[in-house]
């Protein structure tokens, strides 16, 4: 597979920075390093119709959230997208994926809500998914206050955020949280066992390394038993039947490539309406490098279109 020259440039920039890997320090140090890197890589912060900083009471205290209303989104009864940012459950914040959230808001003419969910290791599994579930419940309960249509809420996320989104979608299927119209998963983490062959093929030299991903997982889980819990590894869920319609983006040169493709195949086999996008020449996290990689914004627009295409298949 040929690597996208723009992705190769991003990798070269990372090598030139010669920063220590996240696993060489503490979580706090990783967050500081990540902030410096994402500010240098993220795409343009598109203007949106409005932005609000809100908060509500969650299971572990106040949850801050950023709310973008895209251009063309109606003032009332707007479709909404709950966006769960990536970052290995350890890093990332309301700014790290703000470019992606704004792109979604304008492309889908919707309201995008991004919660600042609790991070590991200070708050290990299941804190992040509890906060995601609480945010979804809040959006349903306060739909009128936020100008949303409670029947048209989807969830999206990238990497570890894609993991949380996939889990939340299965919880919605099981009616343990309010319903979701769709799930939009960008290179999601679906199998914490980390045994897929892509962990060997792309272990080093492609951005996210297998060693860093192992560190992220070990910060998140409480013990080895959590790894097999479907709320950590949704690929291991007994059934995916009845899950919300899905868009799955797989980056071809990513240690998570095989588990993302496997999850999409299980969704398809279970009869879940699916749009699968394969970017064979891309690396993990490329959507967060929009300053250099054109495919970043293009893939978000593709996901937004897929949401519209999948809407007729959503359960009512």
UniProtKB/TrEMBL annotation:
Keywords: Hydrolase. Residues 81-287 form the Alpha/beta hydrolase fold-3 domain. InterPro entries: AB_hydrolase_3 (IPR013094), AB_hydrolase_fold (IPR029058), GDXG_lipolytic_enzyme (IPR050300), Lipase_GDXG_HIS_AS (IPR002168), Lipase_GDXG_put_SER_AS (IPR033140). GO terms for molecular function: hydrolase activity. The active site is at residue 159. Belongs to the 'GDXG' lipolytic enzyme family. This is Alpha/beta hydrolase. It comes from Aureimonas flava. The lineage of its organism: Bacteria, Pseudomonadati, Pseudomonadota, Alphaproteobacteria, Hyphomicrobiales.
